[in-house]
Amino acid sequence: MKRTQVLKYKGKTVFYMDFSGLTSSEEVIDLIHESISFIRVQKEKSILTLANVERMTVTNEVLKAFSDFISGNRYYVTASAVVGLKGLQRMLYNGLMLLTGRDIRTFENIEFAKEWLYAFKLVEEEFYVY
Prior knowledge:
Strands 1-2-3-4-5 form a five-stranded mixed sheet. A hairpin with a 2-residue loop joins strand 1 and strand 2 (12-18). It has helices spanning 25-39, 60-73, 87-100, 110-118, and strands at 4-9, 12-18, 47-52, 77-83, 105-107. It is of the alpha/beta class. The chain is globular, with a radius of gyration of 14 Å. It starts with a strand and ends in a 12-residue tail after the last helix. Helix 2 crosses helix 3.
């Protein structure tokens, strides 16, 4: 299965990023770059995103890449959710939210996250194809 996908949920379109189980900084950063190439060609505030970070390795390099990624997406994303945060990941995540000024909600599972994202009204309901 692809690590990035456009999902349909109750008529809404969600850009899904699967970082789960990635064990090297290079893998995580490659997926961030792939995600950037999709997200940053969308219209302003036209996108919902969902990331799964379960069992993802976190390094200083990954934290910096995520900080830049999250900050740079603010103009394109209406709402974001993340699943899979545990222990130290959750603490680091809270620091990223303070640093970037973003409000990306955390959920215990993908279904709860999709339900929360479903509530948002978007400027555009469809993504550009890349």
